[in-house]
What we know:
Blueprint (H helix, E strand, L loop, with lengths): L1 H28 L4 H5 L6 H10 L6 H13 L13 H8 L7
Amino acid sequence: MIGFCFKRLVWGLLVLVAVAVITFFLSRVVPADPAAFLGRPEPSEETVQRIRVEHGLDRPLPEQFASYMIGLAKGDLGESIRTRRSVSADLAQYLPRRWNC
């Protein structure tokens, strides 16, 4: 029984890592500039460059990936594009609380 639970735990962890990897690479492969999107409407080149530096989009892809995975391991889900707040804060606000602690 312990072996079964351990296998499930390992597979669950592998699925989470695979989803994180796929999410990261899909967000980087899309042919749109996230910095230009964040600086809308009609951002200047200075604004786009500043946003790239602030969000680490000017760094090499492996460095961005390492930073992304370290942030996820620490529980940092990033910043929402829509609300410009922490994704964790948005989730805490919108998801119902089930536990009375």
